[in-house]
Every structure is written in C-alpha cells, then in structure tokens.
Amino acid sequence: MTLAQQYRQEGRQEGRQEGQILAQQRAVIEALEIRFERIPEGLCEEIARIADPLRLPALLRAAIQAASLEDFSRSL
C-alpha cells in the first residue's frame, strides 16, 4: 500500500468515526426531545461537544431513563 493510499484509508476511517459520533449525538438529543419536547439550546450544545464514542451510548440510556432534564443534566 502506498503512502497516499494509506492516508486516504485513514481519512475514510476518521470520516466514518465522526459520522458515528454525530449520529449518536443526534440520537441523544432526539430521545430528549421525544421525552421532554423542548430542550434548552445550551444542553444541545453541551451534548454536541461530547465526542467520546463510549460515553454517548450511556448518555442515550440516561436520556431515555431520566425523570427530568435536570436528572439528565447531572449525567453530563
């Protein structure tokens, strides 16, 4: 594999990872919107800053199980 091919492959992999993180962030926000309708913009921005692929599934669970937005916010 040439160096150029290696860079292209790494770029594609990074793009897929970023896409997965974005999809997970959207899922958390959508779960909150379904549960609580209106979500403060600041909370959405805080979720958008989280890029840890292990933390986002836990936040999705928290969004589904939280009794209130305040409860969910404590899990951030």
Question: What's the short version?
Answer:
This protein is 78% helix and 0% strand.
Provide the fold topology.
Elements: H1 3-36, H2 41-48, H3 55-65, H4 69-74
Explain what the structure shows:
This protein is mainly alpha-helical and 76 residues long. The protein has helices at 3-36, 41-48, 55-65, 69-74. α1 runs parallel beside α3. The longest helix has 34 residues, at 3-36. The protein starts with a helix and ends with a helix. The mean pLDDT is 89.
Structural features:
0% strand; elongated; 76 residues; mainly alpha; 78% helix
Termini Cα gap: 42 Å
Mean pLDDT: 89
Indicate the proportion of strand residues: under 5%
* Largest sheet, strands/sense/barrel: none
Stretches with pLDDT under 50, minimum 5 residues: none
Number of strands: 0
Helix/strand-derived category reads: mainly alpha
Order of H and E elements: HHHH
Helical content stands at: over 70%
Quaternary organisation: single chain
C-alpha geometry:
elongated
Number of helices: 4
